[in-house]
Amino acid sequence: MKPIEVIHAYTDAWNRRDAQALLATFSDEGTYSDPTAGQGLTGESIAAYAQKLWAAFPNLSFQTISIAEIADGRVATEWLMHGTNFGSLNGLPPTNLPVELTGADFIQVENGKIRSVKGYFDSGAIPRQLGLQVVVQPTSIGPFQFGTSIGVSLSRPIAPGAFSITWLETSSNEQAQQVKDYSRQVVTEMMGMEGFLGFTAIILGNRMFTITAWETPDHPRRVMRLKTHQKGIAQVTEFTGFNSVCTPLRMSTTVQCQACGKFVTSRDAADNTCSCGTELPVLASYW
Fold it and tell me: Which domains does the chain have, with CATH numbers?
């Protein structure tokens, strides 16, 4: 097969969502690289990457915009990808939103097989189209580390009587992803538990911190009985961690009076009224 014919067969395998046909277009040493897959995938790792995309976008398809052999066996192709997010992507629930992505591949073909694929595209385009945040920031600057956070609150106007605090540090990115996947499931179950008020997680590299607000110090104990929590502890083995339950010394919320500008705490507000006699805005939930 001529190089361009090989690329047509490669694209056709993607569009038919046929992992074995896709692998058949590569040589035994063939590699695949792109901004999200990483560098130098080979063999079954290529198939696994494709299957992950097909699972997230079951109707995934590629349209060839242009294709040309620019050197002996070296092909440049511009493509347009379409798909709908009907499946889970990186552990997130499907959004059912359509996506469109443009990109280019530079492909080396030798003896009728693909020796290498190097793909180029905007790795933030699909997340943005799915309504996801694309955060660009350094890992660290001097003593400061940067990461991400998530939170959930039931917005109940109850002062927490306890906080459970944990940190967990894994030995690899794979283990960190496992912790994140199990944590999402555990928090979803916790939201239906008696005494749960809210949850915040902070992620700094492979170290993860959680703070959970409860009505009383006894309520957090029930988390240990959740089957998902037990399964996660059994599956994620390469980590170090810490957990505790703390009771607050003092809890109050603060709001500014729109008449006099005074900041009033929930401890000082009588019947939600400022000392100047003006009714205060509704105090925010504690958590």
Answer: 3-129 (3.10.450.50), 145-246 (3.30.70.100), 253-287 (no CATH)
